[in-house]
């Protein structure tokens, strides 16, 4: 099993739906599994973008911080970067870019990551304010979000694609985060257009799924009545 063909995931997106937002891995432990990734902190504390081994957090004020090794997370993805060129794109919007990536990569039935670097326009991101115990559901917590916009910005769009079959374990389809080259703007992506950028891709043949079995709340929760697909659609897509 190659390190670079493995996508590591801690937690599942489904566990966030009923409000299981406790941090169950530390950043220090998580970075043993990759130098690139996305995620969120305990209590949905902002949006994470990990690039070149540096974990950036975009908080609900729009501030970008590098978090320390004690920072905890309920859900995150990571991989060891080995991106390969896919295409150069110009003047393309979010939905069309996603469609082009799927067509060119021919990877709709497996997991992959995309890194798009260049100049973007009309970028809209969000970050959620950290909530405290007792945690509310994902849908309720996500309402406490701040939205940020940039007309033009140079940066990196980091995305992960999961086959729809795995919706719930992750976000079925594309899940994008963004970080500006100046490290002063980013977050979970709600919309964008590309002015000009280079698209690279890294395909995975293995999903290493790590579950928080030491967390009693997770182990005792019954997911049967949670509206997982609906909540993910409202909160993440």
Structure, described:
The chain has 237 residues and is α+β, with helices and mostly antiparallel strands. The chain has one domain: Hypothetical protein, similar to alpha- acetolactate decarboxylase, domain 2 (60s Ribosomal Protein L30, Chain: A, 2-Layer Sandwich). 16% of the residues lie in helices and 46% in strands. The chain is built from six helices and 14 strands. A seven-stranded mixed β-sheet has the order 6-5-4-3-8-1-14, with no helix packed on it. Strands 9, 10, 11, 12 and 13 form a five-stranded antiparallel β-sheet that branches. Strands 2-7 form a two-stranded antiparallel ribbon. The longest helix is centred in the middle third of the chain and has 12 residues, at 94-105. It is globular, with a radius of gyration of 16 Å. The model has no long low-confidence stretch (mean pLDDT 95). This is Alpha-acetolactate decarboxylase.
């Amino acid at each position: 099993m190659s390190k670079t063909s493995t996508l590591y995931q801690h937690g599942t997106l489904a566990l966030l739906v009923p409000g299981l937002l406790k941090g169950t891995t530390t950043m220090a432990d998580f970075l043993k599994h990759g130098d690139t990734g996305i995620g969120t902190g305990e209590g949905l504390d902002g949006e994470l973008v990990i690039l070149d081994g540096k974990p950036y957090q975009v908080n609900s004020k729009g501030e970008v911080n590098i978090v320390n090794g004690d920072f905890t997370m309920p859900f995150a993805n990571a991989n060891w970067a080995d991106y390969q060129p896919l295409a150069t794109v110009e003047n393309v919007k979010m939905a069309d870019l996603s469609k082009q990536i799927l067509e060119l990569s021919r990877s709709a039935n497996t997991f992959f990551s995309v890194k798009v670097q260049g100049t973007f326009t009309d970028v809209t991101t969000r970050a959620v304010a950290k909530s405290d115990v007792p945690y509310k559901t994902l849908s309720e917590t996500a309402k406490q979000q701040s939205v940020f916009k940039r007309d033009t910005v140079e940066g990196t769009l980091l995305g992960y694609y999961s086959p729809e079959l795995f919706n719930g374990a992750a976000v079925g389809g594309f899940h994008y985060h963004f970080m500006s080259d100046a490290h002063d703007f980013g977050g979970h992506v709600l919309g964008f257009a590309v002015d000009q950028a280079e698209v690279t891709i890294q395909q995975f043949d293995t999903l290493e799924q790590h579950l928080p079995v030491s967390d009693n709340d997770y182990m005792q929760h019954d997911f049967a009545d949670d509206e997982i697909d609906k909540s993910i659609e409202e909160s993440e897509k």
